[in-house]
Design brief:
By secondary structure, this protein is mainly alpha-helical. It is built from seven helices and no strands. It has one domain. The mean pLDDT is 87. It holds the Pfam family YdjM.
Length: 178
């Protein structure tokens, strides 16, 4: 498991394309929404305190891409929509759904992928379970590497601050959902 700051930083990096697709307000919103799910897979650490089930082991079911897809599309986005937290009078509900769900997916999938990069053989992850039950081990960086985690967060923050401060983006094809 990567330190929480590494998960936050990686989700920020996954959100960078939003600045090239949309204007400032939607990009900030997308970035904030990615943070909601950037640490969500680690809920298994707390759930196993109350429930005893093999799927709730750390790097278990909550560390799978199918889990993040279902939670984003069927739980988090409908919850925000039901409470009018993502409602818009100028954007269609289907566009709002895709935008919000995409942000949740970016945050959650970034968590799973960065854990793959730091998973030692004894903490392997099966990211495509139940579609593919095999473990995947990449392990190219130590999860507790201070220099890597600080480098990631500094890079992500500098990128987002720079993109936020930019008045115009040179991309004329960006989508307009301001």
């Amino acid at each position: 498991m990567v330190e929480p700051i590494g998960h936050v930083a990686t989700a920020l990096l996954f959100a960078v394309p939003a600045w090239f697709l949309w204007g400032r307000r939607p990009a900030v919103t997308f970035t904030v929404l990615t943070q909601v799910t950037s640490v969500l897979p680690d809920v298994d650490i707390y759930l196993r305190e109350y429930f005893s089930h093999p799927l709730l082991q750390h790097h278990g079911i909550t560390h799978t891409i199918p889990f993040m897809l279902v939670v984003g599309a069927r739980v988090l986005t409908p919850f925000l929509n039901a409470n009018r937290l993502i409602h818009s009078d100028s954007i269609t509900p289907s566009t709002t759904f895709v935008f919000t769900t995409g942000a949740f997916w970016a945050g959650g999938i970034s968590h799973v992928l960065v854990d793959l990069l730091s998973a030692a053989p004894d903490t392997a992850i099966a990211p495509l379970w139940p579609l593919y039950r095999g473990d995947v081990i990449v392990n190219i960086v130590a999860y507790d590497s201070t220099s890597v985690n600080l480098g990631l967060i500094l890079t992500a923050v500098v990128l987002h601050v720079g993109l936020y401060r930019a008045e115009r983006y040179p991309y004329e094809t960006r989508w307009g959902i301001d």
